[in-house]
Amino acid sequence: MIASIAFRNFKALRQASVELCPFNLVVGPNGSGKSSLIEAFVRLRTLARMSLAGEGNEPIRSANAPEVSFRFMPPYDRWEAVMSCASDDKCDVLNVFPLSNGEGEGTWEALRGKLLRIRRFELDHAAIARPASRKENQELKPDGGNLAALLLRWRDQLPDVFSAWATQALRVFPEYDDIQIYDVAESDVAFSLRITGERTRVPAHDLSQGTLYALVVFALAADPEPPSVVCIEELERGLHPRILREVQDAMYSLSHPSSHGLSREPVQVLATSHSPYFLDLFRDHIEEIILTEKLGSAAHFKKLTERKDLGELLEGASLGDLWYTGIFGGVPTCDLGGTVSFGERS
Amino acid sequence: MKLAILSESPADEAAIERLVGAVLREPLVRVQSALRARGWPSVAQVLPAVIRHLHFETNADGLVVVVDSDDSVVHTAEHDRPNYFHPLCRMCRLRAVFRQTTKKLPPARGRARVLRAVGVAVPAVEAWYLSGRPADADVSEKAWIDGQSRGHLPYTRAQLKFRVYGTDRPSLVHETNCALREIARFLPDTRRLENDFPGFASLATDLRGWGQPYDEDGRVE
Fold first, then answer.
1. Which residues of B touch A245 (CB under 8 A)?
2. Considering only the top CATH level, what class is A1-53+65-117+227-330?
């Protein structure tokens, strides 16, 4: 949905822009702008809830004030949304401009409706494992904390959705062969998995972190009413490298539903990762990889498609290994020069 | 026959296991399930460790390794001459790894060495899956080699994948189902696949040689 994004003086993204795909994997060192990219999406959603800036009532901003511009994929390609900020932490104005070269028929109101459905997920295994209020069953919470309530609604009201989710989860984790959702106190529900071939059930709070994260990722993919944009950090967190292909499949079922036999509208996905193993899985779709790197105090984006010699490079090493070497950039740099002690640098 | 398979994905592994069974025509016992490598460079890197592990820690008779050729030099009959080694040919390189690794290992578990079966799918395993389909008669190892020599490849790996899976982003489940569906064509008789893809014929020759005496280079005597 969002075709490109351009930053000016937004946190470490002083002058940076990047074109986006339906699926985007963002890799780079800590503090290189990955989270800032996602944060810009979230702020766009927040500002889309409010009235657009009207003529004459916008605050006066300096020419160097933080600003983030968004352009959109068809049918919304005739709109540009510009978010201006008083500071890194306060973006309070959204302007929308028609573009002369856009041909799409999508209205701003329709686009606004989609922007309101942008979601950021920062999964928390403790929250996922805790009992959830059965009332909070409509939409997956950002930390995944209401998974049990969501599953209960699917089981009772959308059995096909529940069955698809459970089938995938139990296929990926064959050590379990059943899921149970049960009441905890009057208003809460929790879930457990049954060990294959045994009667023993493992309550959610005893499941591994990676298992809990994967169950939420599969729920995101199974959701019949998904967000318009899913932003998710450290998608590979806690997962065995061999399970990452299943995670990739789940994300592709959102961003490319027709490839997975689904007729629903595509969901744009923006995921961050630090895993060379996960990166390996994108060898056939390098256009989906965004590298972030920080030069001095300024962060930039790069696309791997800029490397024309990638085919030759991949003959000798995997994509993940190539990234790890640093030849693409997008790796941490450690300043070990000199004998300056902590606190002595000016 | 007790064997292990080193492959790049569960889909490849499922298909290769059935192909190996079709060639050997005897019951297979997997002694080490799901050995996995992360693409070509990783196969060459981990193979010595895998051979060593199987040799000392298991009772495997042999190890099956199948890789994609991608854009590398395709193995030809010329490469099979004694003492010949093409550094850009993946078949030559894998055989060399086998040779060098097994040479250093003392006998263990009642056998001299873990037997070798190497296949190279040109340019990718999806080409094997398309063999024998009337609509894909243009897909063969010869067509790829001819294309390489002309500087104009007859198809891309992405196109082959699309022909097999109907999408450029298949799920693992879909990939496995498609692979097994296509492989079923060869289970009664692998000769067509061997004819169209010498990289598969090499694998079949290695497998049929198991149980026969090998020379020190791993060739059937």
1. 9, 172
2. alpha beta
